[in-house]
Amino acid sequence: MKLPGLSEFSWRDVATEARLLLIGIPVFLWTMIPIYHMFLFAISPKEDAFSGKLWPDHPTLHNFEIVFKQQHYFLRDFYAQFWNSLVIAAAVGVLTLVIATAAAFSISRLRVPGGRIVLNLALFTYFIPAAFLAVPMYRTMGNYGLLNNHWSLILAMVTIASPYAIWVLKQASDKLPVELDEAAVMDGATTLQIFRMVYLPLMMPSLVAIGTYAVLLAWNEYLYAFLLLSNDREITLPVALGNFLAADDSPWELLMTTGFIYALPPAAVYYAFRRYMVGGLTAGAVKS
Amino acid sequence: MAITLSGDQALAAPPLSSRLTPAQVWGIALLAPYLLVFLAFVVYPVCYGLWLARAPSNYVALYHDPIFARAAVNTLIFLVIGINIKMLIALVLSGFFAQQRTWIKWLSVIFILPWAVPSIPTILSVRFMFNPEWGVINHLIFSFTGDDGPNWLNDPTVALTMAIGVHIWKSLPFWTLILITGRLAIPHDLFEAAEVDGASWWQKFRFITWPSMQTLYITCTLLSMIWTLGDFNSVYLLTGGGPADLTHVLATLGIRYLRLDQLSLAMASIVCAMPFVLPLVYFMMKRLSR
C-alpha cells in the first residue's frame, strides 16, 4: 500500500529535478563559456590557442611567464599599470568610505537640516547614464587641470560610488537605536566621540560591504579610465588591455592571460566578502 | 496660539550661527565633503555640458549625420528589446535560484561570476570566440560542416544582437540577485496555503508571486534601462561601433565625437537622448516616492 505511493512520489521528484537541470545546465554553460575560453587561451601555447579543443594538448604557464617578466612590447609597463589599478582602487575605497560615512552619520544620526534633500540629489546622479556623464566629466577634469593625473580617475569614481554608499550606510544607520546616542550624550560624549566609539564599531559590516563595493567599482572601471588617463605609464590595466586591440597582430594569448590575471583579484575579493556584500548591498532593494 | 508664537520666534531669530546646535554644526561639516564632490563633479559638469550644447548648429549637424540616426534606433532596440528580454530571464531565473537544492546553491555562486569580474577581458574573450578566421566558433563550424562560418561581427544586425547578448551576460546576475531577494521576501505560508488549495504553478505565480514582485520588477526594468543608456563597454569592446559605424548606440557615439574632438557635438547628442531619459526618470521618481 505504501510502496507504490512512495515510488510515484520519487518519480515526480526525478521529473522536477530533470526540469531544473534543463535550466541549470544552459545557465552553467552560458556563464562559464566566455570565462573558460579566456582561461583556455591563457594556458595554451600560441599555436594551440586557436584549435578549438576543450583542453590544450600541452597546457603551459609560459604565457604567465611572459606577462610577469614583461617580455612583450604590449606588456612592457605591466607592473606599473597593475600598481596604478591597485592604488586607484584603494584610494577610491578609502575616500568613498570617509566621505560617505561622514555624510550618512550627518544625515541619519545628526539629522542635519536638508540632509534628506542632499541624499535625494545624490541619488539623482544615477539617473545620468554613466557614458553621458563621462563626456562633460572629461572636459571638467581638463578645466581642473587633472587630466592624465590619477586624481581625476579617483575623484570621478568617488563621485560615482558615493551616492549609493551614502544611501546604503544611511539605511543601516537608521536601524541603530536612538537611545545609544542619547545614552552617550548623557555620559558626556561629544559628537566626535559618538562617531568614533559608538557609530563606527556598530557600522562595521556595512562599512566592509561599501568599501569592497567601491574598490571593485574602481578596479573594474574601463570607460572613465580610458578617457581620463592616456600616458602609457599612468593608465590602469583595463585601458592597457583595450590598447592591445589597436594593433592587427595583437597577441591574443597574452591579452587573455593578462585579462585573466586582472580578473582574478576582484573575483577573489567578491567571494571573500560575499556574505557582507549580498546582505549589505541588497538590503535596501526590496523596500522599493 | 502656537502659530503666533512660532511666528514671533521666527521674527526674533538670532543670527544663523548661534541658532545651530553644536551637533548641527558637526552635521554640516561632515556633509560638506560630499557636497563639494557633488558640486564639483556632478553639478558643474552637467551645467557646463548643457552650456556647450546650446548652439542650434550642433543639432543641424547631428540631423545630417546618418550615424546619429542609426545610433538612436540601435539604442531604442537595445533598451526596448534587450532589457525586457533580460528582465524576463532574470524573473524566471530568480524562481529557479530560489529552489532549495545544494547544487543550485553552488550554481548560484558560479552564476555571479560575470558580474563580479571586470567586463573588458570577458567581452574581448567573446570577441575572439567569434573571430571569423581564428575564432573557436568558426573553427568548430568548419570541422563539423566543412564550410566557412559567417563573418559574425561584420553583419550589423548580428553584431548588435551580440552586443545585447554580452550586455545580458554581464548584468543578468545582478538583476537576478535583486529579484531573488524580492522573491524570498514573500511570506512562505501564502504558497503553502495555495498548495493546500491545489493551485497550479501558474496560478501560484499569477496570484501570489507576480502581485508581490510587480513593483520591484518594474522599478528594476526602468532602472536597468537608464543604466543601459550609459553602457559603453558592451558595444565598444565587442564591435567598436562597426562595421561602418552601424552598431553605435548613443553611449558610444557621444564618446566617439569626444575622441574626434567634437565636444559640443558629443554634448548635443546626449541632449538628444533626453527624450529617452526623462520619461524613465519621471516614472522612476513617481514609483520611488510612493
Concise description?
The complex is a heterodimer of chains A (288) and B (290). With 288 residues, chain A is mainly alpha-helical.
Count of DSSP-assigned helices of chain B: 16
Low-confidence stretches of chain A: none
Most extensive interface between two protein chains, with residue counts: A-B, 88 and 93 residues
Task: Please summarize the sheet with the most strands of chain B.
Answer: none
Spatial gap, N to C terminus of chain B = 34 Å
**CATH class descriptor of the largest domain in chain B:** Mainly Alpha
Gyration radius from CA atoms of chain A, angstroms? 25 Å
Q: In whole angstroms, how far apart are the ends of chain A? A: 51 Å
Quickly count the domains of chain B: 2
Indicate the proportion of strand residues of chain A.
under 5%
Q: What does the average pLDDT of chain A come to?
A: 85
- The secondary-structure class of chain A comes to mainly alpha
Features:
heterodimer, A: about 290 residues, mainly alpha, about 0% strand, B: about 290 residues, MetI-like fold, 2 domains, 16 helices, globular, disordered N terminus
